[in-house]
Amino acid sequence: MAKISERIERVKDTISSACARVGRDPGEVQLVVVTKSATIEAVKEVIRLGFTNLGENRVQQLITVSTQVAEYLQGPDGDLGLPEKVGWHMIGHLQRNKVRHVLPISFLIHSVDTLRLAEEINTSAAKLNLCPKVLLQVNTSNEPLKYGVPVGAATHLAEQIETLPNLRLVGLMT
Which ranges carry the Alanine racemase N-terminal domain (predicted)? Predict the structure, then answer.
């Protein structure tokens, strides 16, 4: 298996090629390294390589890994030029009853697909004095087993989310 640094370089090359095809600056693209099922040692290596945007798709894993990463960044290796903190992205399906656990950790929630979920995020964020960024998850493939609002309902849901004062809709996740 290729080393993490080699795999990340391949991803960066793919991003650069895609940007060149459409006339975009690769610097405009934010790479989020997903920690799903990675060991804590692999996550530490990613951080040592300079990546500070990390994504997790399960709430319990987000809690566990983010705690381990915070301890690592504050530990004796903190003198090695590591960042003070990393930015966590919640990329998986989020249930309303788990919102309060995610908000203190994740600065961007990629999977808002119902008004009820957005309202729960809004209510919980107000209690925590937070205003998290969210992405509206749109099911562009119309696959019934996938999460996301149908394409035809996305604009209406986005308009409703925009009225909620304690979260910020910043884009789409498809």
Answer: 92-174
